[in-house]
Amino acid sequence: DLHEFRITESGETALIIGGDRQPYDLTVVGGTPQDGVYDPIVQEVNIETGDLVWEWNPLYYLDLRHSYRPLDDHHGWEFAHTNAVLKDADDNYLISYRFYHSIIKVDGRTNEIIWMLGGMGSDFTFSNGSSFVGQHDPQMTIFDNDCDGVGNDGPFGTSRGIWVHLNYTTMHVTLLREYVPSVRARAEVEGGIQVLPNGNVLVAYGSMGRVAEYRHTGDGV
């Protein structure tokens, strides 16, 4: 899967996304016991040896009823669509799931979900434009597509980069900055945001075919 290949800070391992179709009982979402899913698995592998270091299977942890994707494929329903994965300094993992409109923090030792940011099962509340739909890039700078490609649009009318603050005491999210393209439009797929060494912010607007650099304040360069 071309969505992710990220070398970790150690330089010894890489984060990748794979998956496979498998039979699965989908009666909980209106399907049948004879249906199937496309199961997107996240792995950390040793670059030199190829040995598996860590693996996470969302099918065992996510509530299928919280997927925003309609049951449109009874043989390989892509319920989650993994966009990106990041390993943090505590050896936990941030994983972005487009069809859940969520970024999920996973405990690297127990594989249990620590919290869910966004979506139907969100552990956080949002204010002042800090929510997102169909997002890519799971760092706390987030590319908000404002749409998920399966008919669910956000309220902002354009894709954008956002910089948010997470309050872990109140479990509330506040928008700090947003980076909006000069011509407002939605990118149905792809996109990313990156903080540059000089503090500026680079936003790639995915299928819109645009890239823009902004000052940290949100002004264009």
From TrEMBL:
The record's annotation in InterPro entries points to: Arylsulfate_ST (IPR053143), ASST-like (IPR039535), Quinoprotein_ADH-like_sf (IPR011047)
Q: What is this protein called?
A: Uncharacterized protein
Looking at the UniProt entry, the stretches that span the membrane are: none
Q: What is the lineage of its organism?
A: Eukaryota, Fungi, Dikarya, Basidiomycota, Agaricomycotina
Q: Source species, please?
A: Fistulina hepatica ATCC 64428
Origin superkingdom: Eukaryota
